[in-house]
Amino acid sequence: MTKVTCECIGCEIVKTKDLIRQTIWGANARGVVIGISGGLDSAVACSLCCKSLSPERVLGVNMPVSSNNPQDHEDAEELCRSLGVELITVPLEEVRSAFLAAPHITDTPVLRGNIAARLRMTTLYNIAAARGYLVCGTSNKTEYMIGYSTKWGDSAADIQPLLHLWKKDVYLFAKELGVPESIITKAPSAGFWEGQSDESELGMSYAELDAALIALEESGGVPKNSIEEKALGFIKCSEHKRAPAANRLFT
Questions:
Q1: Residue 212 CB-half CA count within 13 A
Q2: Cβ(32)–Cβ(136) under 8 Å?
Q3: Closest CA to 16 of 48, 47, 43, 40
Q4: What average pLDDT does the structure give for the chain?
Q5: Nearest Cα to Cα of residue 179 among 64, 27, 38
Q6: Nearest-CA neighbor of 198 among 234, 160, 237?
Q7: What is the per-residue pLDDT across 31-74, written as a single tens digit (0 to 9) for each?
Q8: Tens digit of pLDDT for each residue in 125-146?
Q9: What Rg do the C-alpha atoms of the chain give, in angstroms?
């Protein structure tokens, strides 16, 4: 179990940079492509990739849909400008709208958001394949453990440099790496619909969620209060997102 503290954060950053470099070298890839949303996780992942490889080997892709806050695009531009990373924009609203207009497709706010997440990953893999790059993911341990991601959307990637970090640790990395303050202080949001925020959708703050998940990990999954019970419910309901597809290959 990785515990990140202010005292060891430099060591953890070095280890994560080594992971990125070894993955790129092992795949004989030329670099990485990463979706830059204007949020914290993608900013930290992009910063780590830049320090691991070089800004010239990192490509940022912003993929807005109509529900995204325009400020997010501005923050994405500021981040990439500060890092010296090329940022390209691939608007996806017209593609998503065309898909939703097809027969037999169901449209709800969550399903619409899932479509955007999967279109984004399709976009990243297309660009990566064309350039000989790998796709860098941005999932953290907190969201991974509770399944707060879209299966085969933002959960898909060739490398996940933040997957061992609780959300609180991502904030520590962000401060150490010099991520712009406007990104660090903004309310986390997947941008699935206008005004959506992660914490309001989850019904608890990330600080509460981290504390509950860490306590559950230390107690062997035995909840001691209502918040831990709720977090455990998230874990159980999302087991399918962390498991391989059911099969009989090895039976």
A1: 23
A2: yes
A3: 48
A4: 93
A5: 38
A6: 234
A7: 999 999 999 999 999 999 999 999 999 999 999 998 888 899 99
A8: 999 999 999 999 999 999 999 9
A9: 18
58-62/31-35 β-pairing: parallel
In the block, residue with structure tokens 């800004």? 55
C-alpha distance from residue 193 to each of 7, 84, 112, 214 (Å): 39, 31, 9, 30
d(CA 62, CA 91): 8
Token code pair at residue 230 = 């709720």
Return the exposure string of 31-49: e unless at least 16 CB atoms fall within 10 Å of the residue's CB, then b: bbbbbbbbbbbbbbbbbbb
Alpha helices in 149-238 (DSSP H): 167-177, 181-185, 198-202, 206-219, 226-237
Structure tokens that stand for 208 in this block: 């509460």
Q: Could you read off the pLDDT of 161-182 as tens digits, one per residue?
A: 999 999 999 999 999 999 999 9
Q: Per-residue DSSP letters for 25-64?
A: HHHT-SEEEEE--SSHHHHHHHHHHHHHT-GGGEEEEE--
